[in-house]
Amino acid sequence: MLRFPFLPPVTPFLFSALVVSGLTSKALHLALHFNSLPFLYFVLFSPTLVLPDVLVIICVRWLLQYPSPETRWQWISTAIGAFLSLATWGACSIQIGFFMQTGAEVSWSASNSFISDPAAMKILLSGISTVSAAGTVLGLVAWLIHSQLYHWIGIGLHSLREMCLGGLRAPQRLPVDIRSLTAKPHIPAVDPRALRRIAPAAAACVSLLFLELTRPSVPYDHLSGALPVTLLDAFHSKANVAKGCRTPSLPFPLWEEDSTASFHHIVKPEEGEEGWIRPAWLPLNPGPGFRRLDTSPAELRVADNHYAYVCDGDEGGYYYPEKDPLKISNLDSDIFEPLQKAFQDHPVEIEHIIVLTLESGRKDLFPVQQGTPLFEGLLASHKKANYDEAIDRLVGATPVAQMLTGEYATDSKGKLVDLSNATWQDSAAEGMGGINVRGAVTGSSLTFKSFLNSHCGVNPLPVDLLEESLLEIYQPCLPQILELFNELKTRANKTLMTPEPFSNPWKSVFLQSITDDYDRQDILNDHIGFKHKVVKKTLEAKDAKHKPKGEEINYFGYAETELRPYIQDLIDEAVQNHTRLFLSHVTSTTHHPWSPPENYTKEPYVADQGNINHDLMNNYLNTVRFVDNWIGDILGMLDESGIANQTLVVVVGDHGQAFGEDDRDHTGTYNNGHVSNFRVPLVFRHPQMPRVDIAANATALSILPTILDLLIQSKSLPANDAAIAASLLPEYQGQSLLRPFLSSIEEPPHHHPDTDYIPGGTSPHFGEEVNITVSTSSHMKRSSDERGSHRKGPLRRSAWNMGMVNAGGAMMAVSAADVPYRLILPMKEDFEYRFTNVGVDPGEKDPISAWSLDDLVEDVYAKHGEDAAAWIQDAEKVGFWYINEQKRIWGWRDA
Fold it and tell me: Is this prediction's pTM over 0.90?
């Protein structure tokens, strides 16, 4: 037996740790999915679910046996068995710790990206205390039973071996006569008693094999996974970036199948041919984002290590907005009348642009108001006698958000909240302030995937984490557009005696007080076009202009207030040097673990009523108030510098943040499709713009088009820049929020919109005109005459919203702007389908889940009716088409 000085036998303990950890992991795994399975099926197939764990236990027990005398094989087998035991022990501890923090399971397939990222490791280490506690408990239990467990399992396996190898034969006496050695071999008789003993075991094995072969693969293959085997998922190879030609687009599933060929296979005219005119403003060697507007040969587009979009005349990986069946344009609509009148009656100058991205910014807390499901949950944590005091404290937490949005809260007496003590006072005239959007949702619950929505007007790549940093973004981002303006004005101003108004150069700066090393964010920011940045490394540099005054508040970095002197310097520089500032700032204090600076006074927003621990929510609410004050500080700096009336401030949440008050079973954003992770604030603030309140299920895709539209309509660009902005505006997938948002459109049958394409707004025609017919959406219980028939009336096209669930490659939230339905679409077999109707259940307290689409449709039809059930089928088709289409556009091929 392997021994160390002053220690008891190690081998039995390691084996016991594997057994305890493996079975605990399986019990947790099954418990999380218990309610999603029919009880009868769960009982029937349960033996197959633990079979892999039993096999692992047998294998490791065999590896950890000790023949005598000790051999080299003994040490090899012991080392292997010890490694598997320790790996299982550690992995189970991580699973328990992760579950205690989030209510979710660890996805080992995504863990390799975290382990290889030093900044991401800090996230994992933030829960080390919980993981350590879990590991300690597992080790203690394993120690208490290690001798008995090792001994009795060993005896059991030995008995099983003897029974299988020799238990069927009756005992034989040794031959006495030497002549019998040369005689015909004698086959011993089968012992009937041994046969009776082994028959039940044989029947059990046959039954188990039958269940294993006949059970459905989904979800039972996933549920039967056993540690440490499932850890191999962490070493799966990532997808490969496709070099050269990209795969053709798949037919859009809601169009008629026999009419998609011409729609998806367009031959691009050669340069100089009729039908293609190169934009006159496009540089000879266009930079990233602009390359698809170029007409140069594909081989020239591989410069700077960017991959070609097209090859051999094929349409390839181009994004063509006029061929995008998900794009709905509202540019033919008039802008809102109050805005139109304002642009005509007095100047609305936009000299500078500031985009504030609020980390974990929930719409129902921007501002905090009564009447939301979350507010009612927070109030319920207090005793009824303290309701008035709790209401007044809660509604007073976000005064700046109230003034920015125009959504003024009322206190316990029904009066408007007194905002006189806020860190900033709105100087805009009555009825002025800009555009506030109610109903906006994020395109991803991973911060910098949503950042691509807002800053580049593109949808993210449906894979885990920021693989987009390896690729060229398929549309020009706002910093790249502004830099193009700079380049073209530099040339034009050489021939102009008097520069045009608004012809000063732009300076684009990115700021955050935390690290930008996490998940290659620094590389992505370079691709977006930020040439200047202030991040944690800037604050900590030896030659830093302004050193941090406080300590780090979390595993990423400092509170955003450390950026105050840098922002003030940038504003002063813009004023003094007559430059135009584009400032993009991401807040961070509202990120886990929700710790404001030590000198910040916390308020008791949540009490202790109910069976939920409200401490995390209370910490988060205090960071929400901290960030609200910080936004007020930034707006105050604009006022003091005299440029507030020339500055457009865009405020948007990157994603929300789910807590136990929203979903008791699953918190956080990781692999959590709850609606609280997707509803975000969206505001376009300008003191000289009238207040416009929009109810629209828009996404951050609309931010860049709206900014371009605002610059054009307010005449805040020189003529050449305005022409470029106007030609780029139709290229983007999002709608302009200066105009009525179209949640759906109706078109005549046998017609497809926008078949004439004007690249960059410079050509009257592109390609061939394509007319396609469309099929109706699928409906349940239609008559045989209706089933499969063409719609006689107009075709209804919805504005679909796709939201990647953190970390991006496991599931996706599918919704449409014209219906209140949401579908969580699993991209892997490890997850369930999930449907909610937020029209009747805004807090998603009563979701419907199923492992198969057919089961989900059946359940939804019974509870929500035919339309909802039909919508689910369309949503699944569109969702999977979208996943393939985004990979095609980005140039990504799964390994």
Answer: no
